[in-house]
Amino acid sequence: MYLSARDSIVLNFNPFMAFIPDPKSEYNDQLTRATNMTVSAIRFLKTLRAGLLEPEVFHLNPAKSDTDTFKRLIRFVPSSLSWYGAYLVNAYPLDMSQYFRLFNSTRLPKPIRDELFTNEKARHLLVLRKGHFYVFDVLDQDGNIVGASEIQAHLKYILSDSSPAPEFPLAYLTTENRDVWAELRQKLASGGNEEALRKVDSAVFCLCLDDFPIKDLVHLSHNMLHGDGTNRWFDKSFNLIIAKDGTAAIHFEHAWGDGVAVLRFLNEVFKDSTQAPAVTPQSQPARTDSSVAVQKLNFKLNDALKTGISTAKEKFDATVKTLTVDLIQFQRGGKEFLKKQKLSPDSVAQLAFQMAFLRQYGQTVATYESCSTAAFKHGRTETIRPASIFTKRCSQAFVREPSKHSAGELQQMMTECSTYHGQLTKEAAMGQGFDRHLFALRYLAAAKGIALPELYLDPAYGQINHNILSTSTLNSPAVNIGGFAPVVPDGFGIGYAVHDNWIGCNVSSYPGRNAREFLQCVEKALEDIFDAIEGKCIKT
Fold first, then answer.
1. Structure pTM?
2. Which of 92, 198, 319, 417 shows a CA-CA span of 20 to 30 A to 301?
3. In what helix (H) or strand (E) does residue 249 lie, and over which residues does it extend?
4. Which of the following is catalytic: 124, 154, 254, 421?
5. Model confidence at 83: pLDDT above 80
6. Is 254 designated active site?
């Protein structure tokens, strides 16, 4: 699905997740944090490749299975049987087959369908700064991590390069339509840039050093989601972005993997770089000749490529200009309060989105919520469909006729929504959703050259797949904020998280939809929900 899509991957597919700052403020210095996060990322790579990464497990009964005793016991059970051992205590090991694509990987543009490329032998890091490309080794010939003080010296050397930004920043090409980029990439490779491109594609990962601080959370979202197009290689499996003030985020390409794998990596990098930092703000970089160790990549550009870059820039600038991002932090309560009321926190957030859209536009529309199916081998995602007859009834009661219903009746409706949402979530996670099933049948029909079954031509099928509300939630104490663009021109992209005592919501929109206004309606919806729970009257 991802690789065959021809639209630009920027905004249409690639999301971001931002780290919270390092709790020790002096460690947020750009050079210090870039060094520490790079070393921690390579430590993760080494642990992963050595087969020592703790398995990702979904615990249905954490008190029983998420314990040191169970982990010690299960270690001695042969791997062919260990799954059954975990299953007996309601612990489900999750598929981790995506993880190898985190490193040394990139998406290559090809006509009709892109390809994923991985070269695990490469030992160098790609660093982007001011639109310039640099590479240096972060692993030695024996596969050991290069000394942290050397990595620090090389990054310091890159940060001190005073060359002006290139007139034709190559990175713009990764923002293009995939067929256009595939053709231009052919020209780039045949024009004597094969070697430089190979270095970019095979690099362990891409570290982007930005030359400005982050002003606020809206600026953070724009910068980490798309930036100015010059200092990211959007095709890379992920870009680790670090701003001048140490604000850090991961921007990732979506074809190779999903949020679960990236979130695990993000959590481990945050934990390791803050609890076992490789360098301190007082550390001195190694006395080494970085001008020899660091190679600056130079690309030979002919007129066709220069024109291609200019066109890509124009398109990118025009598109990005139309994107609005806004956010709220609802402080009245979160997971703890809602669970006490026996309500699913996720169902409450989703109900608030339905109420908000109804208040703003007077209707119920196709809504998408992503759910991981990593409980299955090679599982990716399934769709939860949060808009239901239950949310519609409940939204209409809250928005259209609050005075006609007692707080008790509203609470009863919210409980119904919560129960049904829980059922949908369980079905999706267990592979019982309908979206991927229908997608697969449609794909098989096309692959076998069978005429498309009538169902797929039904306007209802078109409507349910035009997801005006596209939502995704990821929860982690290491994540400050995450986000993505709408998946349709008249939609909203809603990244949200229900924390212990507050609810965060980061929304994007294009002209024709108003993210700010939608968020005001979400806030009103949450206020109403909390009022109803507390037995108060709902204000119209």
1. 0.96
2. 319
3. strand 248-252
4. 254
5. no
6. yes
